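As a warm-up, study this chain.
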Amino acid sequence: MVLNRKKRKREELQRTFGKVKDDSFHFDLIERYFRAKDNSNAFQTLSDKICNDLDFNELFMFVDRTHSKVGQQYLYQTLRTIPQSDHNSDETLIGHFLNDPDFRTSVQLQLEKLKSTDAYYISTLFQEEHQKAPGWFFICKILSVLSLVSVLLIPVSQQIKFFLFGIFIINMMIHFWNKRNLYQYLGSIPQLLRLTKVASELYKDERLTTQNSELGKSLKAISGIKRRLSFFRLEAKMDNDMAALVAGLIELFKILFLIEPLFLFGVLKRLDSMRREMDDVFSFVGKIDVLLSVASLREGAPNYCIPKISAQAKKLQAKNLYHPLVPDCVENDINIDQKSVLLTGSNMSGKTTFIRTVGINVISGLTLNTCFAADFEMPRMRVFSAIRISDDLLNDKSYYFEEVLTIKTMLEAGTQKYPNLFLLDEIFKGTNTIERISAGKAVLSSLAGGENIVLVSTHDIELADLLHDEYALFHFSENVNHKTVDFDYRIKDGKLKTRNAIRILEINDYPESIVKEANSISKELDNNI
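Now compare it with the structure written out below.
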């Protein structure tokens, strides 16, 4: 029976490899490790603003093929932090996962042991402050000793029972006061034990040992308090069956000798000195799961490549580039060399999606060493965006003011020594035409300086004329027929030369008087601008 179940599980793991997860995502828990981690040494940590602009959560749900909660948290951390160096050393292990199904499945089965929601809380043991024992805690040790002495003296004097009963009442108050402290760790500590066991099993394989050759020291240190930690695993199991007589007797025993508070604060003190070791074990398992997830992502991708990270700034090339979240996405090529890119085109023609496509591929390339393209070359760069901006009514900030602050951040970043990729959709669309074009030209010229690459979309054809020396011009267009509008989503050289907005009103049966007046005003404005 057990063998059949294991066989079915292996078959399921092999069948689902390369496929998107059918699972629920609790981002408040998934983000927890990332939010608490010190990422000051990263090349860049992606802000919430950038993540919102690039639909990061949707990208994460697509990329995530992990098998443990530890791996899921580590993947989130990996995707949001662009590292200082390449990931080429990880390619050997990814290759093993892709080419050796038996090895891959054995690793997956180990990682599956950390699927419990409680595993999300392991990181709190080495990232957050532990509960501190109160100043009067020394009394607990005295009361525990008094209880033991009283029990031993009962055969000598029956009067000692009354003294023992008084101690028991005091101990009971302390015991139940401590329950709230204990419950904070009934999920995390048993899962730490499980994590350590999984890491020990994985560490036996020399193909995985290379991820951290010094992990044995951390595993040994945590194993030194394994027996103490096991108390919490027993407590977690008992908590599900408190009505059982044996559980009740054990509870009385723990009250009498204050077992729980003495164990809890003793273990927390030991764990407090092992934060680095716990982090090492967590990262070891998490990274293996992430690399396994990358292998699954590549297996299921219709097209992917390992990016070439070039030392040459202001150069970005991609062939057959596509957005991984867009079904049957049209592939495009782009060649940026010493210039930035200005995109023109009507609404729904593909401008914004293309900008997001480049941004997502830069991030996935620098963090997962995987791009959704046939070929992708870029420098190591930081990513900034101004795509999805809204009014901040609570702080009394208009759309335009929010946009001004966002672009100011880009201008400040552009003066630093790192190459940057700036992604902008319809710059300064929150203000009037003349000032939008004037301010847009000045800002875009500044952003394009140094080693920066700018991808910006606009409806303002005038910007194309003002920026043609600094920006390569591309456009997206559509075919407007008698009653239909067809988009091909192909990027084309040059600026858009046709305008179809009023024509689209016409084919959607707007009153003839409105269409006629709109055309008349349009011609007049063209002559005056």
